[in-house]
Amino acid sequence: PGRTLAAGDVLVLAGERPADAEALDGLFDPESIAGSRIAGDTAWVYTDFRLHGGRTRWLLIDAEPHALATARHVQRITEIDVYRMTALLGVPVARAAFGELSRIEAELER
């Protein structure tokens, strides 16, 4: 039923933040990992924004897991991923138009 816009996996773990990035080896590309504290420092989220088999990977570590709050975190992560992939849909169009825009700009400068 249509094209897939975004696909991702969110691994949710209860516990404390990993001591260092090496603890995340194997899940993410160590050259592009990004992470942030969320929910008043009670949860941490990590990703590398790369596709792994056509899907993005996210890790949510929640020190104080509650079903409803964890579900909201996962929903927000999913929304970020869909928004990011939607924004990237315009990149090929922008690249295709770049040559024409450069030509027009050169004409205007004359």
Question: What is the strand tally?
Answer: 4
Count of helical stretches: 2
SSE topology string: EEEEHH
Helix amount: 25-40%
Query: Can you list the strand order of the major beta sheet?
Result: 1-4-3-2
Please identify the structural class as seen in this structure: alpha+beta
The largest sheet is: 4 strands, mixed
Compute the average pLDDT: 90
Q: Looking at the structure, what is the overall shape?
A: elongated
Instruction: Give the low-pLDDT segments.
Output: none
Radius of gyration: 19 Å
Distance between the termini: 51 Å
Q: What percent of residues are in strands?
A: 25-35%
Mind sketching the topology for me?
Blueprint: E1 8-14, E2 34-38, E3 43-52, E4 55-62, H1 67-88, H2 91-109
Parallel strand pairs: 1-4
Antiparallel strand pairs: 2-3, 3-4
Architecture overview:
- This protein has 110 residues and is an alpha+beta fold.
- It contains two helices and four strands.
- A four-stranded mixed sheet has the order 1-4-3-2, covered by helices on one side.
- The protein is elongated, with a radius of gyration of 19 Å.
- The model has no long low-confidence stretch (mean pLDDT 90).
List keywords for this structure.
alpha+beta
Summarize the structure.
This protein is of the alpha+beta class and 110 residues long. Helix content is 37%, strand content 27%. A four-stranded mixed beta sheet has the order 1-4-3-2, covered by helices on one side.
